Amino acid sequence: MTIWERVAAALAAIGLTIPVAANVLIVASEVERPDTYIVYLLVSSPPEQHADNAETIRSYRVQVSIYSRAGLVGLPDVTAAMVAAGFMRGPQRELPYNPGTRHYGLALEFIYVE
Length: 114
Prior knowledge:
By secondary structure, the chain is α+β, with helices and mostly antiparallel strands. It has helices spanning 3-10, 12-15, 78-84, and strands at residues 20-22, 36-44, 47-51, 54-68, 88-98, 103-113.
């Protein structure tokens, strides 16, 4: 299973009510952009361990960003979904307000090791 499939599976329940997309949410026009949506991307994936000239452990750092016009209170519990799927919590940060779409954003990072 790829890291993108792992993240998609982890967010599947949330995706039933809120749009979830890899890398970017493409809409035909800004009028169609949802009030709340989630976008995820791979930040980095360095090898962590080698043995006998072969990689044995790799980590994946994934950013999951939640965008909402209502602000950052009452967002879906992305952390619970990702932790339940075996991801570890990483840093989180507020994203700049986008006056063009009127969305606030929160970026959450998660680490998966295999």
